[in-house]
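User: Round two. Same drill as before: sequence, then structure, for each protein.

Assistant: Same drill it is. First protein:
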Amino acid sequence: MASSIGGLSEDQFLCPICLDVFNQPVSTPCGHNFCMPCISSYWSEPQACHCPICKQFYPRRPDLKVNTFVSELASHFKSLQLTDAGVSSTAQQRAGDGSAVQCDICTDTKEEAVRSCAECLTSYCGVHLEPHYRVSGLKRHTLLEPVAGLEDRVCKEHSMLLTSFCRDDNVVLCDACASSGHVQHKVVPVQQAYVTMKHRLVSTEYKVQEEIQERINKVQSVKESLRQSKAEMGGVMANSVQELTELVFEIQKNQAELVRLTEERQKANEEEADRFIGDMEREATTLQKTAAELRELSRTEDCLIFLQRYSEVMLLPHTMDLSMFNLNRQLEVQRIHRSVSKSVSQLRALLNQMSSDITKYSTGACASTGGSLKYVQQYQVNVVLDPHTAHPQLILSDDWKEVRFSPDFEQWFQQVQNQNVSMFTENLGVLGRKGFASCKFYFEVFVGSKTEFCLGVAAASIPRKRAIARTSSSGLWAIWFMKDKFEAYDSPGVPVYRRKAKRIGVYVNYEEGQVSFFDVKAAALIHSFYGCDFTKKLHPYLNPCDNEYGSNWDPMIIVPV
């Protein structure tokens, strides 16, 4: 089909500046037509406010409006171009598969359509098309070569052909849409957008294939590491049992403990690896499905359907960071073997030390299920303290990030007289201002050289006017440091970590009922609570304690990771 309307040539529909079909055409006072974006850009300099064709100078920049008549002509011309581009392929497809666009009006025997109407969204045979040549109102309709699915090519709001694509909003537009809500946007013809997006699709598909291969390789690596871990762990366990059996009477208790912990560690490794492998296989399946959708979209020749589906298909699924997972099998096995060998060679003199090492190994066994320090730090939240909850003998910094103990009894007495319901009056505690629920969160506290402190998370309903019982149902999940060791708040007198720590990380997985504490400098797990029953929001809890175990004036400071 020749791209012309009423005898007008193709050149008469081209903007003199961009040499493309008019996009939001405007007419200058001297009578020349341009695309609004083109003339606006041309007139961006004050001294250039003249007509690019006849050089007519305008002292004041004209206020131009879209010429609706020229816009409609340009729209019809674009539709002819669009039809020219698609008719040949449509005709070839019909010839290849024997199908043809049928008349939508015929009731008995369906005749082949000779034209489709953009306004009526209907295809007509020669007989039923006749009113479009005779009735004055129908003569103004835009007739196209027969096209199937015409309703998808026409703007639902303006009943005009979709001929443009907005790069800012990623939507296809008719000329009326482009002239109203997308004046300042980057609007290009659909064919140009189709070529650009097709190139992007190829690049994205290649990236997805790479990620699929990475996950397949990672799964194979994890499976191999797990196999070796199982074999080496079994060897270590057997050697340890053989060495300890020589002194079975003296070490029977420690031997049983070591076997139990080794089996638990291996089981934990297997469970973690199984979960990870399952996640990777599910991600690989999801990515394969995405790749299939991308391949299907890449084969779409219909530019409008391609663009309409593009944004949905290009939204890639969320995937895990593969670098976050590592069994650390070799270091773990070596540490166990060194501990057992050293204990056996100096058994009589180092029985207590061996027991301590096994205890440390026991606490470390939960680290894999709780996640490494590097992993949990990604859930960092901004914590500020709530002065309304602070005990009267606590002093908070102006930014609500530090808390320290004060022996000022006069201040304590005055504040107790005016106490509010939120204030702690028995425990030297203060809560974080914001509570958290149904999420994972992490924060760090610098404690320096303090000789005593309590740190953790508390339910919003924790008692404020009486002492907090050191039980599992107190609503406080915390660790208590005294002189040189840590205890779990709900287990008085039972050490869980026999080292000092200057910087403590607190991690909470609300959904799984987990609270873990980390020695940040040593990247070691101090203690974890599992199976907690959280029913209310959790608030960070800080208690700097008094000077019972020596000078304890250092503040507790909430610090960023």
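Second protein:
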Amino acid sequence: MSKKQTSLESFFATGKRPTEEPEEEPTTSKKKKASFNRQYQESYLKYGFIATGDSHAPSPLCIVCGDKLANEAMKPSKLLRHMETKHPGLKDKPLEFFERKKREQEGQKQLLRATTSTNASALRASYLVANCIAKAKKPFTIGEELIMPAAKDICRELLGEAAVKKVAQVPLSASTVTKRIEDIAEDTEAQLLERIKKLPWYAIQVDESTDIDNKAILLVYVRYLYQEDVHEDMLCALLLPTNTTAAELFKSLNDYISGKLNWSFCVRVCTDGDAAMTGRLSGLTTRIKEVAPECESTHCFIHREMLASQKMSPELHSVLNDVIKVINLIKAHALNSRLFEQLCEEMDAEHKRLLLHTEIRWLSRGKSLARVFELREPLQRFLSEKNSPLAAHFSDKEQVAKLAYLCDIFNLLNELNLLLQGKMTTVFKLADKVAAFKAKLELWGRRVDRRIFDMFQTLAGILEDTSPGPAFSRLVCNHLSLLLQEFEHYFPTTKDPRIAKEWIRDPFVNKPGESSMSVQQEDQLLEIANDGDLKRTFETTTLPMFWVKIKPEYPDIATRALKTLLPFPTSYLCEVGFSAVIATKTKLRSRLDIRNTLRVSLSPITPRWDHLIAEKQAQGSH
């Protein structure tokens, strides 16, 4: 029998405590009292207290001074002591007094919650409006000067004064809009870099220009893989403080990409062919290839098309120069412009103004020539009244025929130029367009040899009554031959990407792949070409999406295909970006730092509004 049992039996028998000492408990442990949470009673309101905090262990809160006591004080004696000590003059107040105080406090809570909710909504609205201002390329002051007054007027007429008060809480000052655009630009850039790093291969296009304040800007666009498809976005807009040499261009670009991306995954860079960009020894592309071994360079298709269309015979070039002289004679003098416009109105001409010819604008030449040909009768009359020798050009049938031919051929070149423009283009699609135009030039040359001009609509219209002489036919034929020669120079058939890489566009045609393919890549291509399930997938998805989907199963051949589909064939997006620079940075905004505004206005990525708002404290407008 244990000692403990013996002691208990002795205690019950004699009624005396046992002489043996009980077992000692560890000195480090002490018995804890059982926890007890007091609950709030409605009767406690007569002492000026209400419950707050956790419902299981509420704390008493004085509605007079706002003191919060511990749960242990949740009993009448301690609550009364607080009232007698802190508020002796209120201890005899009736219950109705404290009920009114309770209602006032509850109203303040509701007002605080409503105010907080309204401020959060106003903060979100402030970001949304700033985003719209940037995308519309408008001055930041438009928010406070136009958008807010207009929004108030609309709400006042449709929703009443209560809605006007809510709208007035949206902060839209110029400084606030500037900060909002900075936040949106940072978030958009962070999202873009995260996307690129998931599937690291990317391609870029770069171009350099100056704004209205003569600040040099280097625009860089990126094309990358994301969510099983190809996406493109503005990577960065870099300010060049001094020179625009290849060394300065590379330094600015390298500083940005080295700090945020990896040059090793850049597969190609597309430029406009400028010497600073494509110099063989020290151009930008040469320097990029030194840090990105797999990177290749591409000369923009659109700029090559423009170079190929510049050469022409001296006779046709003389006609073009005369047209430019006529345009400058009228457009350079305000009085001549007004007189010519009035003359066009009197002669019921469809258009009343000439268009300036600008070398740097892709479609300028064709549109200027077409407008001059359309207004040739008013021009002849106007120039005759001015006793200008240029009037004779519009009465000479041969000169008019040459002008008509130039209108037609440059209109056709403009159509090709438009086909080469656009987003998400591939080298295969543009190579198709150029090859088709080269074939047309060859066909047109053969038809002109037979004195058939029906493919030139404007020229055919004025030759209905008169047949052109052999000299004119020879002139047109020589120009078409020269065009074909220039196109072959800038777009050589031997370098046509469709010849060796047609397997990328259609891997099921069973054509041989590239000679540089490894045995493993050739085997994977043959497996793909003979897979019926993959063929059905190919017919129902886009080309980049198809290669991304099969990349886990055929990594080598899919990676090779994607590296061909990723590169930009043109620098079209950079040209669009510089148009946005012109629209955004005007004479009245010449000191604006364009970079954040450009990113917000040009990026297709949707900002993470909840993320942006969570980092800011909601405050209403003052």
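Confidence is low (pLDDT under 50) at residues 1-34, 114-118.

User: Perfect.
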